[in-house]
């Protein structure tokens, strides 16, 4: 049995641009498991957004919400929700700025407004429909991530919140996380649980929310379709997701 753990981002890494899993990626993940490696997911998505994918790939350990909610073999081992007082203030300010929000718990998501084109456009890019409206959802559930819908650069106005960090993932949408929260922090929690050393941790990603993760792990892999900042940080740049990038990398890195 090997003692390596390999984390995969979802969008642009496991999933191609059509939100499908390339056959070569299924093969690679299957072979990694056969070798005895531990395969996990590290994503900005909420757990309910990739349940089917976990079942399909038979993966039961994951870092979700960019590190705020971590599960090891089906058991929740770490939670870092957003502060409710901060969320109340954020909602008031976003209303004033006329920007909608979406609150996400581990089970569901709710919007602060009815149908809005920015929400439809960005959620549609993930193949999700517009969430229902429930402005009080943040009071009812622990919220691990909030989405802010505004044009690029406008989120600068929200830097007044010192306990929040903003990571853009779509031209009209930005993730809101607690300061200090990142995929790297989530991976650290899982690695402690596994008792695994950093040099035995690998991670694959493509976006801005993968920067801390790629920097933190022993071997960081950027997809060929990754943003340039990530490629600059990575130990290895593989081929794009649509060109069997994952299978190519795991072979090149001697994981198979």
How would you portray this structure in words?
- InterPro entries: Cof (IPR000150), HAD-like_sf (IPR036412), HAD-SF_hydro_IIB (IPR006379), HAD_sf (IPR023214).
- One of its GO terms (molecular function) is phosphatase activity.
- One of its GO terms (cellular component) is cytosol.
- It comes from Bacillus weihaiensis.
- This protein has helices at about 25-35, 50-55, 85-95, 115-125, 135-140, 185-195, 210-215, 230-235, 245-250; strands spanning about 5-10, 40, 60-65, 70, 75-80, 100-105, 110, 145-150, 165-170, 175-180, 200-205, 220, 235.
- It is built from 9 helices and 13 strands.
- A hairpin with a 2-residue loop joins strand 9 and strand 10.
- Helix content is about 30%, strand content about 20%.
- Strands 5-4-3-2-1-11-12-13 form an 8-stranded mixed beta sheet.
Number of domains: 2
CATH topology of the largest domain: Rossmann fold
Question: What proportion of the residues is helical, as a percent range?
Answer: 25-40%
Individual helix count = 9
Q: What does the radius of gyration come to? A: 18 Å
Second-tier CATH architecture of the largest domain = 3-Layer(aba) Sandwich
Shape summary: globular
Low-confidence stretches: none
Question: SSE string, helix = H, strand = E?
Answer: EHEHEEEHEEHHEEEHEHEHEH
């Amino acid at each position: 049995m090997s003692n390596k753990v390999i984390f995969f981002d979802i969008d642009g890494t496991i999933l191609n641009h059509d939100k499908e899993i390339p056959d070569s990626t299924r093969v690679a993940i299957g072979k990694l498991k056969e070798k005895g490696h531990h395969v996990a997911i590290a994503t900005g998505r909420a757990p309910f957004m990739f349940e089917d994918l976990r079942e399909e790939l038979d993966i039961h350990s994951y870092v979700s919400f960019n590190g705020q909610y971590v599960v090891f073999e089906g058991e929740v081992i770490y939670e870092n929700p957003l502060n409710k007082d901060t969320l109340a203030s954020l909602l008031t300010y976003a209303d004033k700025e006329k920007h909608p929000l979406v609150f996400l718990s581990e089970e569901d998501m709710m919007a602060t407004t009815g149908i809005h084109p920015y929400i439809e456009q960005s959620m549609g890019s993930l193949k999700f429909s517009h969430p229902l409206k429930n402005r009080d959802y943040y009071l009812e559930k622990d919220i691990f991530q909030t989405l802010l819908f505004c044009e690029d650069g406008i989120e600068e106005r929200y830097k007044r919140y010192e306990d929040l960090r903003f990571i853009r993932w779509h031209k009209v949408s930005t993730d809101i996380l607690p300061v200090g929260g990142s995929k790297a922090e989530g991976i650290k929690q899982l690695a402690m649980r596994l008792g695994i050393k950093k040099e035995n941790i690998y991670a694959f990603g493509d976006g801005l929310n993968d920067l801390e993760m790629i920097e933190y792990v022993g071997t960081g892999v950027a997809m060929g379709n990754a943003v340039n900042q990530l490629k600059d940080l990575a130990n290895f740049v593989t081929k794009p997701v649509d060109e069997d990038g994952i299978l190519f990398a795991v072979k090149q890195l001697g994981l198979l």
